[in-house]
Amino acid sequence: MKKIIPVLTIVAVLAFFGSAGAIMGGSSMMPGVGGTGTIGAGAMMGGGFAMTNTGGFGMMNGMAGAPVVGSDGTAYLISYNPSANPGTVPGSNSFESTITAVTPSGAVSSITLNGIVSRPVVKGNALVATASLPNFSNYHVFQNFGTAAPAGQSMAYVVTLPLTSSSVPVGVSLDGQFASTPVIENNNAYVVTSDFGNGMMTGNSTFNMMYGNYNFNNTGTAHSYLYIIGLDGSLVNKITLQ
After folding, report:
1. Of the candidates 53, 59, 104, which has an alpha carbon nearest to the alpha carbon of residue 78?
2. Model-level pTM?
3. Among residues 17, 38, 50, 130, which one has the fewest Cβ atoms lying within 10 Å of its Cβ?
4. What is the DSSP secondary structure assignment for residue 148, as one 8-state letter?
5. pLDDT tens-digit readout, 200-221
C-alpha cells in the first residue's frame, strides 16, 4: 500500500469509470464518489429486517433490498447488523456492514466493514459506495476533504472487482457522519453528508430502533453539506446546507 499513484489519478478512477485495480495495483477498495441515479439517503440505507442469521438485506424497503448487478452478472448485496447497544452514542462501533458478491455460477465472497454502507454502484471493475459512521482503520485514506475530527466524518470509497475477502477499502473522508449515495452529473460527483442521523437514515429500521430518539444536535454544532467533487479528484465546492 506504500506505492500510491497521485491523488488526482486515484480519484479519477474513483470517479467511477476507470480501473480501480490500476490504482492500487491489485485488490483495493476506494471510498469514492460515483454512480448515476437518484436514490435518496433514506432508501440508500435500507431496512434492517433480518433475512439471514447475520444481517438484514432491507427486503421491506424496495430498492434498498434489491441487488446491484454488474455487467458480468455478479450480484452485490449489502447487509448490516447493530454492534452496539441502542441509545449509546453512535460511532464507528455501532454497526457492521457486509458487502456480498454472488456470481451467476454461485460463488460467494464478502467483506465486512464497520459503519453503515450505502447501496453500491458498479461500473466496470469498480464498486463505489459511501459509509456512514465509518471506522477509519478499515480504509486506506488518501485524501481528506473535511475539517472535522474522524468521529465527525463519513467516507466515500471504491472497491476493485472481483471482490475478495482480502479487498481493502481506499477512502476519501468527508465532513458529516452520514453520507448519501454519490451521483455523477456534469463530470462531477455530488454527495450530501450530514451530522443529523435521523434525517439521513429515514427508512432504516435498524438505525431507527437504536437511535430514533437520539438528539444529534445536542451540541449545537451539527451541520449538513453538499460536496461537489471533480472527476479529476479536485474539490469543486463544499457547501454548508445547515
Report:
1. 59
2. 0.74
3. 38
4. S
5. 777 777 787 788 777 776 666 7
